[in-house]
Amino acid sequence: MITLDDQLDFDEEKEFGAPVAPHSARPPRTVAERVGVAMVAIGTIALVAMYFAGPFLGGWGSLLVGYFLPAVGGVLAFVARYRGRPVGIYHDGIAFSSTTHRGVTAWLLAFGITGFYVALYFRDDLTGALGHDFIAPLVTITNPLAQLLASQDASHWFLYGFLYTLSVTVFGVRMWMRYRHNRYQRLRTVSVVFFQLVLAFLIPNLLILFQSKEYYFTYFWPLKPEYLYPSAWQSAEGTVAFFFYWSAFMSLIATPILTYYYGKRWYCSWVCGCGGLAETLGDPWRQLSDKSTRAWRIERWMIHSVLVLVIALTVVLWVNSAQEGRVLGDFSQAFSTFYGLWITMIFSGVVGVGFYPLLGSRVWCRFGCPMAAVLGIIQRVKSRFRITTNGSQCMSCGNCSTFCEMGIDVRAYAQRGENIIRASCVGCGVCSAVCPRGVLKLENGPEGTRFKV
pTM of this prediction? Predict the structure, then answer.
């Protein structure tokens, strides 16, 4: 018989202990998922073997086994994992996973991705200093595809574009399956995969095939500042002239108009390759973004400082060109080299992607991208886009804030029933997708209207 004293002495924490990580919540792998994982493992092992022993299969065999086999296996595994589950977003175990919560696996991934970017961006320097080309075997394996698309052997930049596109495509399938109940997320995923595959990979290489200059239609000033440098204008003849005028049109005319009507999401979440990689490959780490006020203050200073730098660099180069180098001399070239090294390579590449598993998927977009800065200013000052909230329905679960990759405390806005019009918001819509009460809506239209888009 349990007495009143026994009840009063009962210690819940002592009796029940610490909560157990819900690993058992994930259903067991299906046969199809196991086959997909096995294909990834076999392809990865083969790629490692080819890296150290040379592409022993040769030609297309090496490419298909080393790169496409793991890619197809990944697609199969993602489809099989989510197809048999009821639609909805599952976040079980994220706080307990070593991969998604800055555990050992996350640190190893961060070191691996960062190391690859260092070896890629500083290939010539490392080869000269160490006498060994670390990525040459990986480049060689992609030669058949480079010959097919551009009629030339692959370079390390071709390898980069190929792996980048492959990652967006494979993890785009994951994104589609994971958010397949949400029409906005499905369309957005198709968009970023299309723009990366077609406009940022296939067309630039086909241009080389037809003896034209390589050009990326999804990037323009200020994210790709060299497209409006004087050197671009001076060589603007024939097809190259079209590229220059396209960049000028998109930067100076289309960007303000599209941002006014649709907010920065039209670019950052639907077109941009950086955003595309963040939304697909980076999706498992979106919850790691810093939501503190201190991070927000740092963000405002850093991203606008980079914008000032790229504007100053563009002006300096044009002034130097107009004066034929008499005024600024070598300073303009030194300035350009500094920006290209520290901002374009180290910040956007090495840190921006390499730190996904530690700092979240939008480090570059949030703290450094000058294009995001321009779009954010327009969105904050004059735009029809906003995320509206129905505060009376908010139950303060915090899902929206947790999974905001831009570090916005969405819940605070929802609790007050305020529209969210933030310069940093990329309109990815995940806050709305993970809300269990339908509190958040992505809308366009004059203030006071509720036009769902």
Answer: 0.91
Torsion, Cα 401 403 408 412, to 10 degrees, reads -10
How confident is residue 16, by pLDDT bands cut at 50, 70 and 90?
low
Per the listing, tokens 């991208």 go with 369
Nearest to 101 by CA among 282, 278, 277, 288: 288
366: closest CA among 264, 229, 440? 264
Q: For residue 23, is pLDDT > 80?
A: no
Quick one: the chain helix, strand, coil %, rounded to 5? 65, 5, 30
Q: Which two tokens stand for residue 269?
A: 């979440």
pLDDT digit string, tens, across residues 304-331:
999 999 999 999 988 888 877 666 777 8
Residues making up the chain, counted from first to last: 453
Residue 19 has pLDDT above 70, yes or no: no
Q: What does DSSP assign to residue 154?
A: -
The kind and range of the H/E element at 194 are helix 183-194
CA distance linking residue 410 with residue 429, whole number of Å: 11
Whether the CA torsion 443, 175, 411, 379 is positive or negative: it is negative
pLDDT at 160 over 90: yes
